[in-house]
Specification:
Elements: E1 4-10, E2 15-22, H1 24-30, H2 37-54, E3 61-69, E4 73-81, E5 85-92, H3 103-107, E6 110-118, E7 124-129, H4 135-147, E8 151-157, E9 162-169, H5 174-178, H6 194-202, H7 207-212, H8 215-223, E10 228-230, E11 234-235, E12 237-238, H9 244-254, H10 256-266, E13 269-272, E14 279-282, H11 284-298
Parallel strand pairs: 5-12
Antiparallel strand pairs: 1-2, 1-10, 1-11, 2-9, 3-4, 3-6, 4-5, 6-7, 8-9, 13-14
Helix pairs in contact: 10-11
Length: about 300
């Protein structure tokens, strides 16, 4: 299946895994933007990564992953939702050289910012220096430093599809630690070397395999000697959260005078979404409607 997130669990190892493949979702992004190949690929890798990271979240809301730097790519943003929808974009300096593909070459001195926005509850944001040669290196470093979770991530992207693999060591409970060996039979209940073995097996995956093989075939090839539990695959899709109402709210924050001034000079206001390139146009009549409710709210009621 294309555009799916496949979760799986290593029985008795306290290790979970996820595989994501994006096809139509990735093409929906590329139809709206034309990026140099290295920028395109790093954006695709980030979309795969956000899909994988969203798979472990327990709340309804959004995850926003950003890289901000002073290199040829000044900004890369991918937003994912608990509904398994994605959107992404990058800001590039067209006159720069994009022949190199390391993170430093593309972003210069940069930072990785991951923001969690639950529909209910407090917003959380983690910020770390962007490190490593590849995006997977930076993300595993972030998870280790911010979440104290041992994680392995493998990402791949080209002009047609995007894919990613994640394995993560689950926190051990007191029961897990105290019952490694059955006292009566002497059998090993928990494979204490399981995590290292999973990492070694996962590291054998090739980009071509990650992109071209489906999730079940990859899991079988890598872990056919392990006891694996597969969960039902979840669909992933492209969806932009922009809307005319959200743009109108943004214009409202500018104030009526500023909006009227722009319309007086240009006869209209046109705002294009940076993610999907959809253009929203507002004329003088539209502007009056935006601020009409504010004026009505401010008008004092007549005394009876």
């Amino acid at each position: 299946m294309k555009d799916t997130l496949q979760k799986f669990l290593f029985e008795n190892l306290s290790v979970r895994g996820e595989l994501v493949h994006l096809d139509a979702t990735w093409q929906a992004v590329l139809e709206r933007h034309d990026y140099p190949a290295p920028v395109r690929n790093i954006l695709g890798e980030m979309m795969a990564a956000v899909s994988l990271l969203m798979g472990s979240l327990k709340f309804n809301g959004q995850m926003i992953a950003q890289i901000q730097g002073n290199g040829p790519v000044s900004l890369l943003v991918v937003e994912g939702s608990s509904d398994k929808t994605l959107r992404g974009m990058a800001v590039c300096h067209e006159d720069k050289d994009f022949s190199a593909e390391t993170l430093t070459d593309l972003f210069g001195d940069a930072r990785l910012v991951i923001t969690l926005e639950p529909a209910q509850g407090e917003r959380y944001q983690g910020i770390v220096e962007l490190t490593g040669e590849k995006l997977a290196d930076a993300l595993t470093d972030y998870l280790l430093r911010s979440e104290q979770l041992d994680t392995g991530i493998w990402l791949a992207a080209d002009e047609t599809r995007v894919a990613g693999l994640l394995v993560q060591k689950l926190p051990e409970t007191d029961k897990t630690r105290s019952n490694i060996i059955d006292l009566q039979s002497g059998d090993l209940l928990v494979d204490i070397d399981g995590w290292n073995r999973v990492m070694q097996l996962s590291s054998t995956i090739k980009n071509s395999e990650l992109l071209e093989l489906d999730a079940k075939e990859i899991i079988y090839r890598l872990y056919h000697e392990e006891d694996i539990r597969l969960f039902e695959a979840e669909l992933v899709s492209f969806r932009c959260s922009c809307s005319r109402e959200r743009v109108a709210n943004m214009l409202r924050t500018l104030g009526a005078d500023e909006v009227d001034s722009i319309i007086h000079e240009q006869n209209k206001i046109e705002v294009a979404c940076e993610f999907c390139n959809h253009a929203y146009r507002f004329d003088a009549v539209d502007a009056k409607q935006i601020f009409a409710s504010d004026i009505a709210h401010q008008t004092p009621k007549s005394e009876q």
